[in-house]
Amino acid sequence: MMKTLIAQSAAEIRMTLRRGETLLLTVLIPLGLLVFFTEVAVIATPDARRIDFLTPGIMSLAVLSTSLVALSISTGFERSYGVLKRLRTTPLPMRTFITAKIVSIVVTELIQIVAIVTVAVLLGWNPHTSASSLALIVLALLLASAACAGIGLFLAGRLAAEINLAAANGLYLILLLSSGMVIPTTSLPGPFSALSHLIPSGALSDILHRATTGRSLTVIDLVSLSVWAIAAPLLAVRTFRVD
Amino acid sequence: MDFGSTTAVHDVSFELRFGEVLTIVGPNGAGKTTSLTTLLGFRRPTAGMVELHGLNPVAHLPQVTALTGAMLQDGGVWAPMTPAQVISLTASYYRHPRSGADLIDRLALGSVANTPWRRLSGGEKQRTLLALALVGQPRVLILDEPTSGVDPEGRDVIRELIREEKALGRAIVLTTHELDEAERVADQVCVVSHGRTILAGRLSELTRSTDVIIQTDHDLSTCGQPPVGGHINGRTLRGPGHDADFLARATAWLASLQINVTSISSSHSLESVYRQAVDGDS
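The joint structure predicted for all components is written out below.
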C-alpha cells in the first residue's frame, strides 16, 4: 500500500514538474503578476503598500492555478486519453490515486508559496507574523486546496477534455479578476464585492490578506471556505466518470 | 446491459476455463466491448449475472482486478511516460509482479523502452498495453482487439505470447474482428450479433463439417451432373461424409473430366461458419 502510494506520488510529482504549461501557469504567471503589479502602479490598493495587498492575493492565485486549473486540465486529459479507464482495471485503489494527486498538489503549492514569499520579501514585503496567523494561513490554504480540487475534478469528470480546458481557463480568469487577488474587491460593482466572499478563491484571498496584515478574521470567509471544501469534493466524487 | 433506452447487450453467455482462449467475434457494435467492460465491473448489468473468479466484479472490484489483467481498446498511458516507467509503476500495484525487463524483452519493446508514450507507434502502444495487462501475473486475461493496428511482426509476437500465457494456465478472453486471428488462437468461439450470442462452442466443433469438400482448379458449373449426393459451387464439389463411396465416385468423375483436385477437407473455415451465423441473424 505504502509502496504503491510512494511510487504513484513520485510519478505524479515528476509529471507535474516536467509539464511546461503547468510551470507557466503555477509559478511564472503568479510571480510575473506579483512583480508587475508591485512595481507598476496600475491599480489602487487598499493597503498603503501594494506588496502587502498583492502577496496574499498571489498566494491565493497559486492555489487556484494548481488545485483547480492544472489539476482539472491534467485529469481531464487523463480521462480523455483512457488513462483512468486503464487504471480502473488495475488493483490501484482510487483513494491511493487521489492521495497521490493530493501529495503532488501539496508539493507544487509548497514550491509556489516558497517562491512567492521569497520574491515578495525581496520586493519589501514584511507581513504580520504570529503562531495563530500562521496556523490560520495553513488552514485556509488546505481548505481552499480541497475546495478548488473538488471544483476542478467535478469539471474534469463531466466535460470533454477540450471543453474542460476552456472552462478551467475561463474560470481561472474570472476568479483571478473577481476574488481580490490583484484587483481589490472594493473596486468591483456593488453586489460583486459581497459575493466575492462566497467563492473559495475570494474567501481565501480575504483570509490571507487579513492574516498577513494583522486584522481580525471575518466568519463568513471561513464558513464559506469550509462549505466549499466539503461540498465540492463530495460533488466531484458523486459525479465523476472515468469513461 | 442497457444505456438509457438502448439495450446494448441482452443475451451473451460464456464460460471460461483456465488454460483456454475464448474469442468473441462479431460485427461492429455487436456488443463485444460492452460485454468485456461489464465483465470487468465497469457497469452493473441491468439484468442477469456476471461473475469473474466466482465474484461479482462490481461488488468485489479490488479482488477481481488483482486477479485479472485487462487491455482495453481505448486504454491509455500518461503521454510523457515511457514503457519502462509505466510498466515499473504498474508493477507497484501488485503483490507479486512479473519482471518488467522480461516483459519488455518478450514484447520486443527494448528499442522503445525509454521512448515517451506519445512518440510510440500504434503497434508499440498495443504491445505496451499488453505488457501492462500481464505485469500482475493475472489468472484471467481480458484483451479487447489486442492486435488492432499492429504490424504483421508485432501480431506474431502478440499471438505467440497469448499461446505462452495459455500454456501457463491463464484463462484468456479476447475480442477480434479478424476471423483468421480467432482461428489461430481460439479454443472456444462466441459469435455475438445485435447484443446476443448467436453461436458458441469449441472451435473444433463449430468448424467440423459432415460434408466432404473437394476443391478443384476448374469451374465445375459447366461440367454437367455431379456424382450422386454431390453439390457444385464454383470450383467446389461437396458431398456427404457418411457416404463411404462418395469420395471414390467424385474423384473418378473429376478424373474423367481431367480436372485436378487441389484439396480435400471435411471442415469449414471459421469465416464460413461466422458468415452463415451472422447472415442468418440479420
